[in-house]
Amino acid sequence: MDESTIRILQKLIRQIPAQSLQTMLTKWAHFSRQQIMSLNFKLTKAVLTEDILVLCEENGLTVKHITELEMLYVIDNPNHGMWYAYQFLDAVDESQSTELTQFKNKFKTHLKQLISHVSIKIKKHTDEAVWIRVAWGDSFTRPNHMKPTYVVHHLQTPYVFVSNLTAKHRPLLNQALVLACGYCSVKDAQLSGRKLASIRDLLMRQYQQVFSTKYQQHPLQENIAPPKNPNIEREQAENAGNRIQMACEAFGSGKVPELQTAIYKLETRFKDNSNNLMTGREEPFRCVVKFASASLLDSLKHCVSSGMVSTPVTPLLSSITQKGRNYFVITDKGLGSSQTQPSQN
Fold first, then answer.
1. What is the pLDDT of residues 137-179, one digit of tens each?
2. Three-state DSSP class for 292?
3. In Å, what is the CA distance from 326 to each residue of 201, 258, 289, 292, 299?
4. Which has the closest alpha carbon to 89: 181, 220, 202, 207?
5. How many whole angstroms separate alpha carbon 46 and alpha carbon 54?
6. What is the spatial distance between Cα 87 and Cα 38, in angstroms, rounded to a whole number?
7. Average pLDDT of every residue of the chain
8. Is the C-alpha dihedral spanning 317, 323, 324, 330 positive or negative?
9. Helix axes 18-28, 45-58, angle to 10 degrees
């Protein structure tokens, strides 16, 4: 193997946790059972990497095989990078479904017409998602396998999720995807996060939703402690039930998608009668407000159901689930939309 392939292997082995390495190598299926048993997985990563490198050279493995191992690991562990959602617009033929082989051939053909040096791997996952790995080069350099782009697309949906894509390569990828999937254009869905499954579930509404019902006689009882004295605490229990109902309507019930952030970009006129200097300015007042949490929707849901914030829930927050977005632009006309989110790089 050449030096660049060795560096890719070394980087990959460092990324894979020691307790998962044997399982990944077995799943990879390029080592025999005897070769895997010959490896001592209790050794340090540095020593183990050298032993794995020897086996790779014995089996004549190349960069093609090493990137297959990387792809297996990323598919099983997708939450190590930031994922950005995009949505296709205006299907060319809504009655026509896309078949995997057809998609693969079209995507590879279109992308290779746009850029001469590019490496493409496509693999279908068990959840029907199509995973694409793209290593980019240019007219003078070979594909850089150290910084690949990953793309996930469910063929019969208008959504695609992308990780580690530079602004330089975004138009090329978008054009190849649009042509391969049979759409006219693609737009930024204004949704991003580290949990791929969570942003997918939020965008596709694949979580437990609660719909508004003003006439519900028995509000949701989630997390309501039985009142010590029903005669005294009846009114408090009813208010608590209503808060929980509104929290679940806004953010979902049970397990909700795990978003880490919600970003609001303000472009509004400054309004404060006590500050004539700022109020008199004609250009909009610009700032960015960012909410962050390990699980933002759970945190917001708790704030509402516990009475920490007033109800009903402001559309500024409920729009996260209702619109399937976590990046907003607020103007004097209300919640708007920008062309793209902040750059991935």
1. 987 889 999 999 999 999 889 999 999 999 999 999 999 999 9
2. strand
3. 13, 12, 12, 11, 15
4. 181
5. 13
6. 48
7. 86
8. negative
9. 10
